[in-house]
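Field reference: sequence -> structure
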Amino acid sequence: MYFFRMLRKKLRKRRRLRAERRQLSKEEKKARKTQEKQLKAEKRYIMTEKREKALKERRRFFKAMPLLLLCSLFLLELAYLAMEGGDYLYQYSSSAPSDLQMILVTGKNKSTVQIPASLAWSEETDLPYFDMTAVANSTELQTFGDEKNVRYTNDTDQTAFFEDGKTVGVLNGEYVALSSAARFYNGRVYLPLEFLTLYTSGLNIGYSPEKSTLTISKTQDSEQSTKDHPVYNGLSITKFCLTEAAHPTVED
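Structure field:
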């Protein structure tokens, strides 16, 4: 009998240990599952934060894209102008001179010529350059020459000769000095304003520094003009300084 009692006790003890082990294994499994869930939740949270951060960076990049493109275009234009010639870079400076408006007037007819700032102003004097090609066309001067030199002739065989980059001109066979060199650009001739004010007659010249405007108008022939039929003087060229027209009229 004693043997059977001891055997029962051992069996009960084994059953109890097995039950305890089963209970522990269940709790461990639950703990592991809970831990795995927590790890997955943490990973999801981290991935969500990374995605949100990446989306914010993309949004910032796309918002800044137009500004970046404008800056790139501006830099490319500056580089192009620098390659073409550094003289044109002044137009991006607030203190740079502006373009010059040259207005040609014949009676009631007006025509405007835009002279770019790189060609309109003399570094040696305060006076501007003017478009001699436009003046010659409006005053019916005959033009001969090429891209390096040019000669103008009026109906009385008076002549004016200029070379590109030279500060000396030839008027009616006599040399005259100019304060600034003649400029030939893109098939047009630009001369310092003093040529008109000192060595020509037949034109009225008005200059407004504040408005950057140069007005050149033909004068009427008082003897031949009538009220209904005005007759305008041609452009006369002389190698002598015309004291009555030595300076342009400065307009306000």
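Note: The longest helix spans residues 2-84.
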